[in-house]
Amino acid sequence: MTRALPDDGAFADMARQARRRLPRLFADYLDGGAHGEATLHANRAAFGRRVLLPRGLRDVSQIDLTSHFSGMTLDAPFLLSPVGFAGMFHRDGETGAAQAARNHGVAFGVSSFAIDPMERIATSNASLLAQIYVLRDRAVTRDMLTRARNCGISNLILTIDTPITPLRERDRRNGFRDRTRPSLGQWLGLASRPAWLVDRMLGQGNIIGNMASYTSARGVLAQARDIAGRIDPTLVWHDLDWLRQEWQGALLVKGILHPDDARQAASCGADGLILSNHGGRQLDPAPSPLDMLEEIREATGDAIPLIVDGGIRHGGDVVMALALGARAVSFGRPWAWGLAARGKAGVEDGLARLRRETADIMALTGHTTIHTLRGAGASVLRAF
Hints:
There is one protein chain. The protein has 17 helices and twelve strands. The chain has one domain: Aldolase class I (TIM Barrel). It has helices at about 10-20, 25-30, 40-50, 95-105, 120, 140-150, 170-175, 185-190, 195-200, 220-230, 240-245, 260-265, 290-300, 315-325, 335-340, 345-365, 370-375, and strands at about 50, 65-70, 70-75, 80, 105-110, 125-130, 155-160, 250-255, 270-275, 305-310, 330, 380-384. The longest helix has 21 residues, at about 345-365. The relative contact order is 0.21. The strands form three sheets. An eight-stranded parallel beta barrel has the order 4-5-6-7-8-9-10-11, surrounded by six helices. It has a two-stranded antiparallel ribbon with strand order 1-12. The two termini are about 30 Å apart. It is of the alpha/beta class.
């Protein structure tokens, strides 16, 4: 029996439009998870096991969502997570999504597998974080760091939960990353979405622009397979010493879910931790980041910022995560739905809805700033 899709929250309209517009190859890539997809659904279920407590007779006429982390001042505590291949969803690409993030005063994570190169994305003047995988050829990783510095990017996201790529049934069924050139069935699937196809013909090109100079493979499928196969599976904590020597900016480690890993990352000089199960696309089953937040907060103390990545769809989700100790939240699928549905305008619409919901929930729980909300802590909610 096929599970129902999780609640798409403030992004529901965008998600519906995106699924109608995208070829199945990309719609399933965006929506799917690993193995039985239990983790994918657990991310939303974690928020459903908690409720927020309303408070009355407080002056909530002015709500301020201003947030500070990793040297950035944001108008809302949101980070648009790195999403690989997002530029294939709409010709506005990652650059358009970053422009939407800038217009809402929030941060944008540049995926190593971005269709737009980071140099183009940097023209958005958004608050950017460069996401990297450490490859077997460290010269490539070193060059990525140099490019990020030259783009004025001072925050780095090291993703550590992808030493291998597990079986993702939807991707397997569609031949995603299994082939170096599209099959006849894939071509027919692409042609079945004429609006998307015309949009791609008007776009910048069908290559992984951010990594194209490091591979001789041609086309998105071949490049994805080649580069993913070069991610270093032998990476260990000691290698963070090398990365810290190479990168003098802020370093956020993404893919943390175990308290011991959180302590280890902090001791290796991480400036922030992103609690994430890769959107349910890696270990399955795995706990949701929200369920692990308090335990990891206890393990690390308040000195190192924590970001919750996974399942964020509503303003209430944002408030829950912040009350339980997160400094900010991040999300990938939602903004990618917006991009796939209507380009930059779709991302802006989704962000506006989430910001409005977050402000509404802040007011109804009696809090006017992120500082007072985080100070109130777990008293803001009840778990059951």
